[in-house]
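Students often ask why we bother predicting the structure of a whole assembly rather than each chain alone. The short answer is interfaces. A chain on its own may look different once its partners are present, and contacts between molecules only exist in the joint model. In this exercise we take two input lines together and write out one structure for the complete complex. Read the inputs first and try to guess which parts will touch.
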Amino acid sequence: MPEKTKTDNLEKSTKRRRHKREQSVRATISNVIMCGPITVWSVLFILVPVGFLVFMSFMTKGPLGRIVYKFTLDNYKEMTKPVYFSVVSESLVIAFWTTLITVLMGYPMGVAMAKMKKKTSGLVTIALMLPLWVSGLVILYSFVIMLNTSGTINSFLLRIGLLSKPLQLLYNRFAVIIGMVYMFLPFAVLPMYSSIEKLDPALIEASKDLGAKPVTTFFRVQLPLTSPGIFAAVILTFIPCIGYYMVSDMLGGGQSMLVGNLIFRQFTISRNWPFGAALSVVLAVIILVMVKIYTKLGGSLDDLAA
Amino acid sequence: MKEKKPEEKVRGRGLRIVSRIYLAVVLILLYAPVAVMIKYSFNKSRANVTWQSFTTKWYVKLFSDGELWHVFLTTLLVSVIATLLGTVIGTMGAVGMRKARFPGSKLITNSIYFPIVIPEIVLAVALLLLFNLQGISLGLPTIIIGNTTLVLPYVYITVKARLVGMDPSIEEASLDLGADRLYTFLHITMPAIWPGVMAGAFMSFSLVLDELIMTSFLADAATVTLPIKVFSMLKKGINPEINALTTIILLAAFLMVVVYLAADEMRNRRLKKMDAEQVRLNETD
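Now the answer. The structure tokens for the assembled complex follow.
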């Protein structure tokens, strides 16, 4: 009965088509449910605010901190003044030294952790993060206790006779860099550790077997292969360092004004929102250029939350 | 595998020992300020900079200080809600955005990374402008929105990392075998990405707990969290009561970690025992 098979087939194919259409409708619905919240959230609380920020950076400052909605480039021109230039250069100097010290200190820690059993390195990770989970700020205040002229370190050095009068350790660039390194070192170690841990030991072995000295092996094999971790550590230290105004407030004693402090000031004491917005835009652009270089060099943004 | 030369073996062991000693030294240095913080919670002097004599009065005072408890509870409330919101939205987003292509989807996936990539202060300022220009008054809801935005990328990235390591054919198999999408998500996808979800939630919670920049831009005068309280005290010196509270929180966090590790250890042991049992049964067969 060919006739029957034909209709049967026809029925089957329409059924299948309907089923397929139903499936695709379902897929769309589930996609909307899954992607909807994050899309709406990103648009409302990331993209739109950034738009407002750029808009505000072109507005005029009125009397008494009011905002006059008139287009101007003055906020950007203002930044070329030497005062602000020195703030930017101070921020970059502090961020540079903090990043350098953090990476140099953190990389060997990553090496040590990579040589451990998985369980032990997990414990070390927890030990690294535990103080910061609680309150970095309160712990940072300990540096005031330790570094002041009658503090722990100075009185110790005086007692053993290494010093005749106390050193000024607090309220300078040195103290700010120490505080910054303290805050960012634990975060920087993790991506370096994970890239060192992923490194195939056979490659190191091969380099040694082929007659390379340990130093050569380190610089020509290990370092290039673990560079994604180092890049991630640099990004994770350098970026927050520039915006983090608390450390310089607490340990710098107003001696070192950073970009973060300057922006914070525009929204509190100075009440100059348009200028604060313009500073934020410039800061964001500088950082985004750096991040672009990072991804061009082969870094992945996904490495930043190891 | 080739036998290592004896001197190489010695050098490898030497390197391991040196690197471990170095790690131990750095850890001790990292904990020195913590020790000082705990020590000064027992300091008699209110000026928290010089050591006077031992007292436990700050702990006693802490428990009768209604204001500080209120601050602590506010901090906890913000942390819990922001973590929940961030984790749910971030997880669903990571699963959904994996395959979804719609106009602007590239812009959205890029913008999710924004809070991690640009300094916090920039996003805080941007959100402040949004709320201000829209006439939304600052308070608990704005703080929660800001902190949720901040932690969203962390959850998104950790969950995404788990999804990359997952075989997509398992989900397809589930759908082909007649399970609907919700069932597949809950029973197939979720168990596979669960460690990532937990890691993201954990990271979020600890970030918000100590979050100052975002919160100080988006809070009104009446809403005070612990970091804001601490920061406002800096000019006069931090009250030892704060040290006492921080010591208690640190202790609680430490105990939580210990309990978690102990539970993990017990589970591992049980699994090992079951394995051994299985092997024995197989052998008797």
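Check your guess against this: Chain B has one domain: 65-275.
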